[in-house]
Amino acid sequence: MIRSITLITLLACAALPFPVVSAPLTPAPEHSFSAVLVAKFITQLHYKKNKLDDAQSKAILSEYIDALDPNRNIFTKRDVETFNLYNSTLDDAIRDGNLTPAFSIYRKYNQRRIERADFALQRLTQPFDFTIDEHYQFDRSESAWPEDKKALNEIWRKRVKNDILTLSLSEKSDEEIQKRLSKRYKRIKTRTRQVKAEDVYEAFINAYLISIEPHTTYFSPRTSENFNINMRLSLEGIGAVLQTVGDYTVVKKTIPGGPAEMSGQFQSEDRISSVGQGIDGKMEDVVGWRIGDVVALIRGPKNTVVRLQLLPKGSEDSPGKIVTITRDKIKLEEQHAKKSIIEVPSGERTSRIGVITIPTFYMDFEGARRGDKDYVSTTRDTRKLLKELQAEKIDGLVINLADNGGGSLPEAISLTGLFIKSGPVVQVRDSKNKLDINEDTDNGIAYSGPVTVLVNRYSASASEIFAGAMQDYGRAIIVGETTYGKGTVQQVLDLNRHAPRNSATLGQLKLTMAQFFRVNGDSTQNRGVIPDIKFPSAESSSELGESALDNALPWARIKAANYKPYGLIRDDLSTIQARHLARTETDMGFQYLQALAQMRKKALAKTSVTLFKTVRKAEREKQRNESLTRLNKFRISIGLSAKKMSDLENDNEVASAEDEKFLDEVKNIRVKEAAAILADLITQPDISVKVTQSNTQDSGQKN
């Protein structure tokens, strides 16, 4: 399960100053007032109807300790037992605005952090024997708390040894290793002393909120400023959402139209270990940095270059790779729907399959409010593309929602309306159990032909609403991976509006207020939308998505809405499924995706690495050779030249035409298979007849 208090930052923000020394770690009056407000809103408005009682107090304490020390290598067992005196009192403390317990725990955390840094610095000067067969457990999140200081020292001895070995295998000199690690461990002390009362309060109050469910979050005034800038998407940077997880800054997702997304080099959960400026600037080690300071290094003016060293999640033994990015404004046009046509041979005929890729559900609300004739929206743009594709005589349509994290709810509803005559699209139940049914009221249909909807584990929220409605109406076959499973609605409350004198120091509260339900009565929450045909490369739901988050709201079911399904039957797809499996078993693209999925699964299951240098080196070489073989096998299959070993770790050159073709091919592996499935559907007589009948009944065009 995933447990972390995080600060989300879109790398396109103005720099924020960080003082060298903070004020004493004691709560300010505004923190006490804010805590009282937060508790009031949570108990009165949150969808979960959570009670702030002794049971919740215990959960808050557990989340707070784990948020501060997720890897269980800072606190001792006795420290944690001492904190247990607050097991049944944090609920009363929050209600009363008493933050003394929270700050007391944090001060102990700071003390232990400095002790650990001092030990690491002292141990760094002593020799290590890398011929001993011992292991370093880098993931201790499920381990017992260390018994005492002696046990902590042993954990950190191995950590220092692992840090040295990792850099040594990356061909760093002894002098450089000593210098870099000394700086890293000293930085722990510096960052610890820079912590402000605002940081402590934000960490504690978010432990309270995450103990309820993962999408309710408090933003301090500084974080609120970043959050508000993020929502405007009008800035420059690399376009990535980052979080702090342990000592690392982690890439949670890339923004459609941003340089990071367009590079194709980033994966969710990649860890940033170093940052360099320009093509050949020195790489700055950022392990253990505050996220704000990492962001300050990464962002910068348009057309300047930044280099990031990325380590895949779970691959503690990987040297990672250096990715070169040219900073730019997020290109909003890249978020717009786009069309293409794939020709799929099938016996004596060739099916022309139209593809509309929708990266996000967008709408120019200001343009619509002004009455602009050409304001952009997902539905308006898709309608235009549908007309163009039908003029080009397509036989069927793929709606590609892979990696679409959601967006505008009204757009998800109106987009569904392009494919059905009219009717309910999504049901929304609020914290008072009031049910609101959102409907498409336009009787026209913009496209009445056969449709498949492609989704993956990163398709979320509005994407799940559209895919679920298309599945419930029998209007489309859903293919790909089970979707993310985010079926809740959040609203941002400005706490400053409730301050006595219009204070600007209270921050904001993002609060879960409602839950989505499909028209068949199923929630999209937690389970997501399950495809009719699941691809063999599907990611595990236990590793990604809502179900992997701590305290996620459970799946639920309510009464189905009054709707009439169409004639496309999904309960007998055995022939289509068999053809799909036969193709993917021999398809080089799917073999490549499956190999990557297996590699990630294996890496995630690993919790320790050997500290025996020759064995570690052999394991690393084996991993690199396997990666290179896997990569080149697919590259050669699509007519590209093979990569060299050095290319796996460095990407300092401008991407070649071959590299761009490779990235395009990878992106289109699943899209091509979705088109092939649809072609099979069209050419299978017993199903295609029903589609035709349905189309005849639903003729007509949206205006």
Q: Which key features would you list for this structure?
A:
six-stranded mixed beta sheet, 20 helices, 703 residues, alpha+beta
What does the model show?
With about 700 residues, this protein is α+β, with helices and mostly antiparallel strands. It contains 20 helices and 23 strands. Helix 5 runs antiparallel to helix 7. It has four domains: about 10-225, no CATH class; about 235-330, PDZ domain (Pdz3 Domain, Roll), CATH 2.30.42; about 335-585 and about 670-695, 2-enoyl-CoA Hydratase, Chain A, domain 1 (Alpha-Beta Complex); about 590-650, no CATH class. The strands form five sheets. Strands 1, 5, 6, 7, 8, 9, 10 and 23 form an eight-stranded mixed sheet that branches. Residues about 1-20, about 225-235 and about 685-703 have low confidence and may be disordered.
Any idea what the CATH architecture of the largest domain is? Alpha-Beta Complex
Largest sheet: 8 strands, mixed
Number of domains: 4
Described by the principal axes of the CA atoms, the overall outline is globular
Mean pLDDT: 86
Tell me the fraction of residues in β-strands, as a range. Answer: 15-25%
CATH level 1 name of the largest domain = Alpha Beta
Distance between the termini: 47 Å
Number of strands: 23
Radius of gyration: 27 Å
Low-confidence stretches: 1-22, 227-235, 687-703
CATH superfamily of the largest domain: 2-enoyl-CoA Hydratase, Chain A, domain 1
Output the number of helix runs: 20
The secondary structure category is alpha+beta
Specify the helix fraction band: 40-55%
Q: Might you state the CATH topology name of the largest domain? A: 2-enoyl-CoA Hydratase, Chain A, domain 1
